[in-house]
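>> received
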Amino acid sequence: MRVYARLGGTFSAWMAETHPRFPREGLAARYADHPDGNYRRLAVRDPAATPTLIERLSHDPAVWTRQAAVGDPRLPFHRLREALHVPDLASSAGANPALPEDEIAAVLDRADVPA
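>> returned
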């Protein structure tokens, strides 16, 4: 975490947080209300983060935090559908593994992507 803190919001920080040995447990309790959005984003990585917390973070002021939250499969479905229509979130929402196939088809239809 000291390395992450020193790196700030850089690409290197992202590389550190995606490393398999980066700590995940306890991040939600520790960082969900942190003043820095880069730390609030870490709360999404905690396996104990609740769907309620994930939804709250999907409305976060920091775009990176919102994007991390809408890409998480614990996000409640109603919020996932909303996020598909928000330009800053649509890509992350579209990559959410919990997005059902029929919703993916609907997104592609709206974008006039041929079948």
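>> The two ends are 45 Å apart (CA to CA).
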